[in-house]
Design brief:
mainly beta, 6-stranded antiparallel sheet, about 55% strand
């Protein structure tokens, strides 16, 4: 009943404000992110975690080195089935 994803974000990229019915937990593996969850803002770096309750608006902005995060969603992110999987690539981490 969960989706687990390793997400590699390019330098200085923006994940615009959005919300979903899934709860989201994240762990930063590499890089930095400026995060806004609801009305709260913080900056996270390797080893930091974040929790996003269901239906709460949130956005991310990566630092100049980009970021790699592990995101866990519950329930499953069924909307991701519309994406075409990428060919395997060497990871940018650890």
């Amino acid at each position: 009943n969960t989706t687990l994803a390793v997400v590699e974000l390019a330098p200085n990229s923006v994940v615009p404000e959005h919300q979903h019915h899934n709860e989201q937990l994240g762990l930063v593996l590499q890089g930095t992110l400026k995060v806004r969850i609801g009305g709260e803002r913080c900056e996270v770096s390797p080893g930091d975690t974040y929790t996003i309750p269901a239906n709460v608006p949130h956005e991310f902005v990566t630092g100049p080195e980009g970021a790699v995060v592990v995101d866990i969603f519950s329930p499953v992110r069924a909307d991701w089935s519309r994406f075409t999987p990428l060919a395997p690539q060497p990871p940018r981490w650890p």
